[in-house]
Amino acid sequence: MANTLDNFRKAEEELEHLAEEKSQLDLEEKVVRCAIISTAL
Q: From which residue to which does any coiled coil extend (predicted)?
């Protein structure tokens, strides 16, 4: 049982980490899009 909880916590931490990475990538994508648009004007 303890092993299952430990695995669950590890998976939860990994999911949080991936969500943070996705947020960062989404932000970077928005910055790149804005840069492309501003150079096209």
A: 1-28
